[in-house]
Design brief:
Number of domains: 1
Helix content: 55-70%
CATH topology: Serine Threonine Protein Phosphatase 5, Tetratricopeptide repeat
Strand content: under 5%
Distance between the termini: 8 Å
CATH architecture: Alpha Horseshoe
Order of helices and strands: HHHHHH
Largest sheet: none
Structural class: mainly alpha
CATH class: Mainly Alpha
Mean pLDDT: 97
Number of strands: 0
Length: 95
């Protein structure tokens, strides 16, 4: 799935079938359900899940917690606008 199709899926009631938990985390965050997004990010224990998890804590404003997740993801702490970071992560997790 490409980024444009993923964004278009935000008009639906559930994440697109076949996307991983990190992508689902981004989907739910964009839909305004941070708790569901966080639950999804916790389900993917690899670097991609950690990156989505870091982003979510950045959205939340918990930068200390986000920093730990960025380290686990092997990513630098982002200072990009949140929308730009969301797209960067989405491109990676969507393949």
């Amino acid at each position: 799935m490409d980024l444009a199709a993923f964004k278009q899926s935000l008009d639906g009631a559930a994440p697109p079938a076949g996307v991983g938990m990190a992508a689902q985390a981004l989907w739910w965050e964009r839909k305004g359900d941070w708790n569901q997004a966080h639950h999804c990010a916790q389900q993917q224990g690899d670097a991609q899940g950690a990156w989505a998890h870091a982003y979510l804590h950045r959205v939340e404003g918990d930068l200390t917690n986000a920093g730990g997740w960025y380290r686990r993801a092997g990513q630098p702490v982002s200072t990009a606008p949140l929308g730009e970071e969301w797209e960067a992560i989405a491109k990676v997790v969507l393949g």
